[in-house]
Amino acid sequence: MYEFIEGEIIEKSPAQLVIKAGPIAYLLNISVNTYSKIGDQTSGKFYLHHVQREDAQLLYGFIDREERELFRMLITVSGVGANTARLILSSMTPTEIRNAILSGNAVALQNIKGIGAKSAQRIIIDLRDKVGKASESDDLFVPEGNTIREEALSALVALGFPRRSVEKYLGKIMSKGDLTAEEIVKEALKLM
Q1: How do residues 26-64 score in pLDDT, each as one tens digit?
Q2: Which residues pair with 18 in a beta bridge?
Q3: Mean pLDDT, the chain, as a whole number?
Q4: Residue 17 main-chain phi, psi, to 5 deg
Q5: Could you tell me the domains of the chain?
Q6: 108 pLDDT tier (thresholds 50, 70, 90)
Q7: Alpha carbons 63 and 70: distance in angstroms, whole number
Q8: Burial class of residue 75 (count of CB atoms within 10 Å of its CB; 0-12, 13-18, 19+)
């Protein structure tokens, strides 16, 4: 329902953030990961997830789309609610969580308070395919402040090539010298 909010940061703590957008201030529940990335910022843009319960309407804020997408995946797992997902994202970085799921590292997940052996296994089983797909096809959007490499990578992934194999070829192609994104894509298409 809500995509993002952008505004002035009024208050912040490792668990919550108050952001003023226009004449209204919003309370966002955040992870420690998001809190640490905010640093000394006085304003910012946060991606949102809205949770509507019988007794409350809550907004969860994330520093980037990757963290929000991982949160959304985690809450699809039986027994993992929004607060547990936020706790997981506060205990490990999104990359560490993805790696733990892809490698089947239940012990890393069990080290998080409130996650037992069964929950860790359920997270791994339920999300292994989703996390694998997401890491191969990540956002087809070109990130803000993009580089030529990221632009070429996004274009090739949008054309249907697996992200991992594209990354291998990009390293080889970019070592040849200064190329535009278009030239990199053309070279990659010749090699693939």
Answers
A1: 999 999 999 999 989 999 999 999 999 999 999 999 999
A2: 11, 27
A3: 86
A4: -140, 135
A5: 4-62 (2.40.50.140), 65-137 (1.10.150.20), 148-191 (1.10.8)
A6: very high
A7: 12
A8: middle
